[in-house]
Amino acid sequence: MTRPPSKSVPEIKAGNVRLEVTNGSSPGSIVRDSPRMLADLQPRSPKVEGGHLSTATMRSKPTDAQAAAESRACLAARVAADNKGRDVIVLDMRDVTPLYDYFVLATGNSRRQIHTIAEEIDAALRAEGDRRLGIEGYETSRWVVQDYGDVVVHLFDTDARLYYALEELWADAGRVDWETRRYSRPHGGGGAGR
Q1: Is the pTM of this model over 0.70?
Q2: Element of type H or E holding 105
């Protein structure tokens, strides 16, 4: 037994049929032999040909602002180490992302220690005239992120540091030897020290 088509749902037959979704309460309307149908199926932008995008970056002498950012990142790393932070690393993110210049990574043994490191870093950077723009994760203290604009400080507990592995995620970033302020390119790229 065949059922007659419902008046609320349009019957669709083979051919040049396209359903248009509307903002109203109707389920849509049928457009037959629409001249826009072919235009809708064709790409709106030309096909991009070629291989993977590679970017060559030439490093010039650091500006005063970049040197100041590196100095503040090294200061944050020293404060973390002075407060018994472990595995302290400073990553130079300038060749990797335009959002920030340096990451400081450190691991704390307890919630109290992570809080202390976060507050001591903030006090040291405030003394240098820097202002924290934001902080996340302070309450749970598994991963505390402090944003200073061009420098971002990440403080982890041991499990979170292993789980997120930011130094592996950002393996293309150079490392700054914050103890002596020497710079090394990732993967032995032969970069000169700064």
Answers
A1: no
A2: strand 102-107
